[in-house]
Amino acid sequence: MFTGTYTAIITPFRGGQLDEAALERLIKFQIKGGVDGIVPVGTTGESPTVNCEEHIRVIELAVKFSAGKIKVLAGTGANATSEAIALTQAAEKVGADGSLQVAPYYNKPTQEGLYQHFRAIAKATPTLPIMLYSIPGRCGVEIGVDTVKRLAADYKNIIGIKEAGGSCDRVSQLRAALGPKFEIMSGDDSLTLPFMSVGANGVISVASNVIPKEVSQMVNAFARGDAKKAATLHARYYPLFKDLFIETNPTPVKAALAMMKLIDEEYRLPLVPMNPKNWDVLRTTLKRCDVLE
User: What are phi and psi of 71, to 5 degrees?
Assistant: First the structure.
């Protein structure tokens, strides 16, 4: 359902407002690049700094601009269960194909709290596919393997997980516990191939904002058994995978897209422009990877 390459698409701003024309331009770039889908208003989409109206508007526009050519897995998680439910119901109403649900952040719920949180969302939107999102480095809590297994067993619309804990062991554990049909997506570009080698189905990618065609080719090559081609692409673009995180995501990827003249380089506080030295490093890497001339 949600496998292959999904782009965690940025949210472009201009003059403090959502830049709808730039968003359309970016989504058309993704479609042309051959990605399987996009994830609007996730971490990379600056979801913490958009208001609820803007949040739903981005999803609505993502659905409109995708025009059924690629899937839209809407980021609708929150650390308040009621807010996550409201966002998810709204995303379903505007036509999203599914929901990406990050673990509640800052309040650090127990595993039982995580189960009850995701349970409430699944019950409130029983026909919408839900992908969990475990990123302990951001949230301060990991969605335990047993919790994922329990949720998947109890709620058929919980169909997968974006795994951003940095561990191949955990991917192996998830695959063993959940079986072959449960979808596991890498949440780290540099770990996509290692994760796929132990059972992941693809990536929710930051780098594919910049190189959608190349990330798609890498993932598709590995999926069809051409590990050599996949490894060649990984090695070529590995410097970019790393330097897109030279500062806090999504600052570098938005800087890269601005260098490519696809968006204005604009952030919302508390995010700020890159340190000039890091900006130069990133630009050099983009040139090295033939993204810029």
Answer: -85, 155
